[in-house]
Amino acid sequence: MKSIFQQILRYLYIGKKDPSAPKTRYTAMMHGMNRISILLFLVALVIVIVRLIRRH
Question: Could you give the CA distance from residue 9 to residue 25 in angstroms, rounded to a whole number?
């Protein structure tokens, strides 16, 4: 079973690709949407951390 961290690295093109993964159009679109979601989550996390630091 793959770890969540390894899957995130693959989505962001940092980790190496799984050669046995299916290569369909729908899978590519799903991975693209997941990349966008992960990046937006990370941006929001940085914003929340910066606001918490500035309050104190």
Answer: 20
- Pull the structure tokens for residue 26: 């729908």
With contact defined as beta carbons under 8 Å apart, do 6 and 15 qualify? Answer: yes
Token pair of 2 as six digits: 């793959």
Sequence-distant (6+) residues with CB within 8 A of 6 are 15
**Per-residue confidence at 18, pLDDT binned at 50, 70, 90?**
low
Q: Per the confidence metrics, is the pTM higher than 0.85? A: no
DSSP string, 15-33: SPPPTTS---HHHHHHHHH
